[in-house]
Design brief:
The structure holds two protein chains of two kinds. By secondary structure, chain A is mostly beta strands. Chain A contains no helices and eleven strands. In chain A, about 35% of the residues are buried. The model of chain A has no long low-confidence stretch (mean pLDDT about 95). By secondary structure, chain B is mostly beta strands. Helix content of chain B is about 0%, strand content about 50%. Chain B has no helices and eleven strands. In chain B, the strands form two sheets. In chain B, strands 2, 4, 5, 6, 9, 10 and 11 form a seven-stranded mixed sheet that branches. The mean pLDDT of chain B is about 95. Classes of the chains: A mainly beta, B mainly beta. Chains A and B meet through strand 5, strand 9 and strand 10 of A and strand 4, strand 5 and strand 10 of B.
Amino acid sequence: EVQLVESGGAVVQPGRSLRLSCASSGFTSADYTVNWVRQAPGRGLEWVGYMRSKIYGATTDYAASVKGRFSISRDDSKSIAYLQMTSLKTEDTAVYYCTRVVRLTYGNDAFDIWGQGTVVTVSS
Amino acid sequence: DIQMTQSPSSLSASVGDRVTITCRASQSISVYLNWYQQKPGNAPKLLIYAASSLQSGVPSRFSGSGSGTDFTLTITSLQPEDFAIYYCQQSYSTWTFGQGTKVEIK
């Protein structure tokens, strides 16, 4: 079964750091862009950032709201991706989802597989 | 950044109704538009990609249309399992989601 499982969510104080993990199974994760999306309580979806596969240079990009504070990495030997979050703010409180990115048609990338999410609460 | 605006924000409908949700982009995005369904407590699920292509396994009562800046998601004959929140997403320039449309039971 194709699956993504996030872990690492916790309650942390503002200014602290946290690392989330996303373990994939059922497919060759090294071939895909890995991506993170978050959802604040009662709010909509916000794209956080992505890392392309190594064959595409493992390039990354991030939403302006997290650029410079969050970083994505991947260990393809373990089929795990990470979201390192630093200088956390109360507004980073959300459910964090990792997703698989697929190109189903030319130029159009969509999120076809999602994990169940992990909860991050930033509070003093 | 490309902004996505959905309307309405919520709607009430009955089983068997035809439902239409609109999504407008702040600039032309060709057909780089996807639709997702999210049920309470669950992760979103991809329904439609490239504006009008049905994702594998999604019932044919779901359809999408549009190009440029204006897009539509239509559910013909609404079923009990379709009560959920629907999000559009542009993939023209990284990704941005609409604010969501909640489909509730009338």
